[in-house]
Amino acid sequence: MAVGVLDSQTKSSLNGSTLFDRGSLKEQELPPPLRSYLCLTMLACFCPAYPVNIVALVFSVMSRNSYYQGDYDGSRRLGRSALYVAMASIIIGLLVIAITCIVHFTTVIRKATTKSRTKLLNNLN
Protein backbone atom coordinates (compact mmCIF):
# COMPACT_ATOMS: atom_id res chain seq x y z
CA MET A 1 0.00 0.00 0.00
CA ALA A 2 1.65 3.27 -1.10
CA VAL A 3 0.94 6.75 0.16
CA GLY A 4 -0.04 9.02 -2.67
CA VAL A 5 0.11 12.79 -2.72
CA LEU A 6 -3.31 14.28 -3.56
CA ASP A 7 -2.14 17.80 -4.29
CA SER A 8 0.61 20.14 -3.17
CA GLN A 9 -1.07 21.11 0.12
CA THR A 10 -2.64 17.89 1.45
CA LYS A 11 -1.23 14.44 1.93
CA SER A 12 -2.97 11.21 2.72
CA SER A 13 -1.71 9.06 5.57
CA LEU A 14 -1.70 5.27 5.76
CA ASN A 15 -5.03 5.09 7.57
CA GLY A 16 -6.76 7.35 5.05
CA SER A 17 -6.89 10.57 7.07
CA THR A 18 -5.76 13.79 5.45
CA LEU A 19 -2.70 15.64 6.69
CA PHE A 20 -2.19 19.30 5.90
CA ASP A 21 1.14 20.66 4.86
CA ARG A 22 2.56 23.45 7.10
CA GLY A 23 2.60 25.83 4.17
CA SER A 24 -1.18 25.69 3.86
CA LEU A 25 -1.63 27.00 7.43
CA LYS A 26 0.35 30.13 6.60
CA GLU A 27 -1.82 30.83 3.60
CA GLN A 28 -5.06 30.64 5.57
CA GLU A 29 -6.31 33.93 6.95
CA LEU A 30 -6.20 34.03 10.75
CA PRO A 31 -9.27 35.25 12.64
CA PRO A 32 -9.08 38.69 14.27
CA PRO A 33 -8.12 38.77 17.94
CA LEU A 34 -10.87 38.35 20.52
CA ARG A 35 -11.85 41.63 22.18
CA SER A 36 -14.63 40.74 24.61
CA TYR A 37 -13.29 42.81 27.58
CA LEU A 38 -14.29 40.06 30.00
CA CYS A 39 -11.74 41.09 32.65
CA LEU A 40 -12.91 44.71 32.56
CA THR A 41 -16.56 43.72 32.87
CA MET A 42 -15.78 41.43 35.80
CA LEU A 43 -13.93 44.33 37.45
CA ALA A 44 -16.94 46.56 36.79
CA CYS A 45 -19.13 44.11 38.68
CA PHE A 46 -17.50 45.34 41.91
CA CYS A 47 -18.85 48.85 41.33
CA PRO A 48 -22.21 49.71 42.92
CA ALA A 49 -24.11 50.10 39.64
CA TYR A 50 -25.59 46.64 39.57
CA PRO A 51 -28.05 46.59 36.67
CA VAL A 52 -25.57 48.32 34.37
CA ASN A 53 -22.55 46.12 35.10
CA ILE A 54 -24.57 42.92 34.72
CA VAL A 55 -25.54 44.10 31.22
CA ALA A 56 -21.85 44.69 30.44
CA LEU A 57 -21.02 41.16 31.58
CA VAL A 58 -23.79 39.71 29.40
CA PHE A 59 -22.50 41.64 26.36
CA SER A 60 -19.00 40.34 27.01
CA VAL A 61 -20.12 36.72 27.22
CA MET A 62 -22.24 37.13 24.08
CA SER A 63 -19.18 38.58 22.32
CA ARG A 64 -17.12 35.50 23.22
CA ASN A 65 -19.88 33.18 22.02
CA SER A 66 -20.14 35.03 18.70
CA TYR A 67 -16.38 34.85 18.23
CA TYR A 68 -16.25 31.09 18.78
CA GLN A 69 -19.17 30.60 16.38
CA GLY A 70 -17.25 32.45 13.67
CA ASP A 71 -19.26 35.71 13.67
CA TYR A 72 -16.30 38.08 13.97
CA ASP A 73 -18.20 41.27 13.09
CA GLY A 74 -20.89 40.51 15.66
CA SER A 75 -18.22 39.69 18.21
CA ARG A 76 -16.46 42.99 17.59
CA ARG A 77 -19.76 44.90 17.86
CA LEU A 78 -20.78 43.17 21.10
CA GLY A 79 -17.29 43.59 22.54
CA ARG A 80 -17.38 47.31 21.84
CA SER A 81 -20.80 47.51 23.51
CA ALA A 82 -19.43 45.62 26.52
CA LEU A 83 -16.56 48.11 26.74
CA TYR A 84 -18.85 51.15 26.65
CA VAL A 85 -21.32 49.73 29.17
CA ALA A 86 -18.50 48.64 31.50
CA MET A 87 -16.95 52.11 31.37
CA ALA A 88 -20.35 53.66 32.10
CA SER A 89 -20.77 51.24 35.00
CA ILE A 90 -17.40 52.19 36.47
CA ILE A 91 -18.15 55.91 36.14
CA ILE A 92 -21.60 55.51 37.72
CA GLY A 93 -20.11 53.40 40.51
CA LEU A 94 -17.43 56.00 41.27
CA LEU A 95 -20.09 58.74 41.33
CA VAL A 96 -22.23 56.72 43.74
CA ILE A 97 -19.23 56.14 46.00
CA ALA A 98 -18.25 59.84 45.91
CA ILE A 99 -21.80 61.05 46.65
CA THR A 100 -22.16 58.55 49.49
CA CYS A 101 -18.88 59.68 51.05
CA ILE A 102 -19.76 63.36 50.71
CA VAL A 103 -23.18 62.87 52.29
CA HIS A 104 -21.79 60.70 55.08
CA PHE A 105 -18.94 62.99 56.06
CA THR A 106 -20.99 66.18 55.92
CA THR A 107 -23.63 64.70 58.23
CA VAL A 108 -20.94 63.42 60.64
CA ILE A 109 -19.33 66.85 60.81
CA ARG A 110 -22.71 68.52 61.44
CA LYS A 111 -23.51 66.07 64.23
CA ALA A 112 -20.10 66.61 65.79
CA THR A 113 -20.37 70.41 65.67
CA THR A 114 -23.87 70.43 67.14
CA LYS A 115 -22.78 68.11 69.95
CA SER A 116 -19.77 70.28 70.73
CA ARG A 117 -21.92 73.43 70.69
CA THR A 118 -24.48 71.96 73.07
CA LYS A 119 -21.68 70.71 75.33
CA LEU A 120 -20.08 74.14 75.33
CA LEU A 121 -23.42 75.81 76.15
CA ASN A 122 -24.06 73.36 78.97
CA ASN A 123 -20.61 74.07 80.44
CA LEU A 124 -21.26 77.83 80.33
CA ASN A 125 -24.51 77.45 82.27
TrEMBL record:
It comes from the Eukaryota. Its main location: membrane. It holds the Pfam family CD225. GO terms for cellular component: membrane. Keywords: Membrane, Transmembrane, Transmembrane helix. The chain crosses the membrane at residues 37-62, 82-109. It is found in: Membrane. Belongs to the CD225/Dispanin family. This is Transmembrane protein 233.
